[in-house]
What we know:
Elements: H1 25-82
Amino acid sequence: MSERLPPEIEMRPDGTFVDPPRPLWSARIFRIAALLAIFAALVAAAIFLIGFALILIPVAFGSALVAWAALRYRIWKAARSMGDRRDIFPG
């Protein structure tokens, strides 16, 4: 069984409902300030992540260049070890 109390609804004798009281100005200002702070934090995090991704682009190009150079070196070494034969797979 649920231990929560049912919602309390205030009704006037004529059958209309009583509107809840509006929050204070200080509460509204605090809510707006909190939303702005959260938005600023999200923008800062997005800028940080974009900057980090932009830093990784040259690293990826450098590692691709090193991998290409290693492949060319291995091909060159394999070609040197074969001597005059041009066919890698003898038939």
